Each structure stands twice: as C-alpha cells, then as structure tokens.
Amino acid sequence: MADDSSSSKVSLKLLIDSKTKKVLFAEANKEFVDFLFYILSLPVGTVIRLLSKNSMVGSLGNLYDSIENLNDMYMQPNQSKDSVLNPNTVNYGANVALLPPNDVVPKARKFHKCPSHNTYVTDNPIAVCPSCNNKMSTEVAYVKGSNSVKETVETGGFVKGVVTYMVMDDLEVKPMSTISSITLLNKFNVKEVGGLEEKVVSLEMKEGLLLLKASLQCKNVLTTAAGAIFFLHHSSSEELNIRLLVIGEFAMVVPAHLTAEAVNELREGIDLLLGRWSALQMAIQNEWGGRDTRQKAQQLALDIYHWLIRPAEALYVDDLENLLDDFMLSLNTEIDDGSIEEISENLMIIHEECLKVILAQSKD
Ligand SMILES: [Zn+2]
C-alpha cells in the first residue's frame, strides 16, 4: 500500500525578510495552489470538523455542537444531522495534499425512484412520480463516480502543473513571472537583496491544518506557517506544540506551553515601552510614516515580539537596535537621542523576565 504521509508532502519556497522574519511571498507549485483552492470548496461543516470545534473562532463551533446534541426526532425524515456535520465535499474526486483524505462517508442518503419510470430520482420519501403520479417507492443505490476515473498528478486538482505560482503572505495567488517579483521587491521596499533569505520548506498535514486555521484568522498566513515550521523543527517532540495567537489582523505562533499570562505580560511590556517612547508617539500623531503610521507601529510591536521569542542564543541587542532604527527611518524619522538604545535595553530586560517564566515552565 502506498504511504499516504509521504505522498502528501508539498514543498514551498519562501522568500523571507531575514530581519523581520516576515514572508514576502512564496513560490508554489500546483500541489500547494490546489490545496489553497480546495479550502474554498470546503463546506463550513467540514472546516469545523477538520479544525475541531473547540479551536474555531467565532460561534460556528457552538452551532456545530448544538446540531450534534440535537435529538434526531427534530430532523426532517429525509435529512440527517450527519449530512450537516459531515457534508459531502465537492472535491472533483481528488484528495488534495495537506489535508486528511476525504474518507468520511456520510451516512448514505436514501434515494427512490418510481417503480415504472427510471427517469426520475428523489430523496424525498413522499415524492410522487411526475409521469404517473405514483409514489416513488423503489429504493435505488447511489454510486460514487470518482473511483472509476483514475486521476494522474497532472490532470487532478484545480490548476495546471506547468506554471509556478506566487502566493503572497495574505494568500493572494497569481502566476509567477520575473517582472512581477522585481516589482514586488520594490513594493516591499527591499533595498538589499542580501537581507532576504530563501527557504524551501516541506509541508505536511499538520502544517496544512495550521494553514487552514491561519487562513481563517489572519492576514499573515505564510509568515505564521513559517513560524510554526520553525518551532516544529526546534521541538523534540512530534506533536504540534504551538498555538496561534491572533492580534488584530495578524497572527503569531507561540510555544503551546507559554501561558496566556506570560504572552500577555510580554505583549503588555512591549506596548508599554513603545507607548512611552516619545519619538515614536510623535511620529504616530503626526503621521510621519503616512496615514497608516499607527498600523505600522502595531506591526512593529508584533515584529519585536517575534524577534524576542526567537531562541535566546540568536538575540543580540545590536540587532534589536537596528530593527528599531530601520523602522523609524521607514517613518522618515531619524533618531539620535539615545532612545533607541534605551528602548532596546529595556526590551531585553522584559524578555529576560519572560524567559524565566518559559524556562520555569519547560522544566515541569
Ligand atoms: Zn412513474
């Protein structure tokens, strides 16, 4: 038998800004784009089942729960709770990589036809035949067609395989071309190509589920996934020991053992420091970095957070100073009052205090 886990691996080439650890875009092949397109074809009930109702944002998880708990007697005789909870996936017969194979066979719905006419079929037990007005009482069996047609890698899925696709951090997808990538580097204001790193990552089902979850919750899906892969490769256990923390439109990956309190403490510490940094606050009030200066400052807080939760041996205060310096320059603000050094120093102190918490917890 074929090994499912190896056949569902998909590789993705990420272009990462090595300073902010943000993914600028990814070069993706057909398999990854098929996966993304497939997400859109999933019924909401299937998404909830895949992600488990407890981890759903919003209220649909409760709705799912309610339907599960509802007594069958409330359902119409031609409907079943199962058809809502395990909806048939319109997937063109293809099992797309990165998600569990579509092996949930919904409880067979019963179909009936007229005893004398073969032209009509119904799933309503009280329907009458349009030709003779008799009850359609003869049960017929439903045949799933996909097993008869063998798909090849090239003809299956949604998109053609000859093209490389470009996938942005927020999942905008388009065919790749050299011209567009140069335009992009300009758009991202990348001055030195040396500040970029290319990383080929291999995705499996656990990353696929994380991508699905992130795509519902944030605008930085690839960065989030890259963060998850980073954690996975630095974690000794096979388990996905991380969770998504969503702040506004952006998500970040945090170690699962990091308590919400510790995360909040670090976040609050960063916000407090940035809030007291008069140069930054002036830049925000006067919109020196454009109308979205406040949004940029929020992103800076996230970038600092990301930077601080890197492995401790990769943290140098100089790098942090550069990060802050570059950020202020991007707001057209040059700082030489020593405040960058002071803020960086304080951030390192906050980090150290938070690290104690992490270390104490990981020893348990
Ligand atoms: Zn009939």
Description:
Belongs to the TSR2 family. It comes from Lactuca virosa. InterPro entries: DUF674, Pre-rRNA_process_TSR2. The protein has 364 residues and is an alpha+beta fold. 43% of the residues lie in helices and 14% in strands. It has 13 helices and ten strands. Strand 6 and strand 7 form a beta hairpin. The longest helix has 25 residues. The chain binds zinc ion (ZN).
Topology summary:
Elements: H1 4-7, E1 10-17, E2 22-28, H2 30-41, H3 44-51, H4 60-69, H5 81-85, E3 111-113, E4 121-122, E5 138-140, E6 165-168, E7 173-175, H6 178-187, E8 196-203, H7 205-217, H8 221-233, E9 242-247, E10 250-255, H9 260-276, H10 278-285, H11 293-308, H12 317-330, H13 339-363
Antiparallel strand pairs: 1-2, 1-8, 2-6, 3-4, 3-5, 6-7, 9-10
Helix pairs in contact: 7-8, 9-11, 9-13, 12-13
Zinc ion binds next to loops.
- For the termini, the CA-CA separation is 41 Å
The main pleated sheet reads as:
5 strands, antiparallel
Q: Please, how many helices? A: 13
What is the percent of helical residues?
A: 40-55%
- Helix/strand order, N-terminal first: HEEHHHHEEEEEHEHHEEHHHHH
In one word, what is the shape? Answer: elongated
Number of strands: 10
Could you tell me the strand content as a percent range? 5-15%
Low-confidence parts lasting 5 or more residues at pLDDT below 50? 1-6
What's the overall average pLDDT, rounded? 80
The rounded Rg comes to 26 Å
Q: Enumerate the strands of the largest sheet in spatial order, edge to edge or round the barrel.
A: 7-6-2-1-8
Structure classification: alpha+beta
Tell me which ligands are bound.
Answer: zinc ion
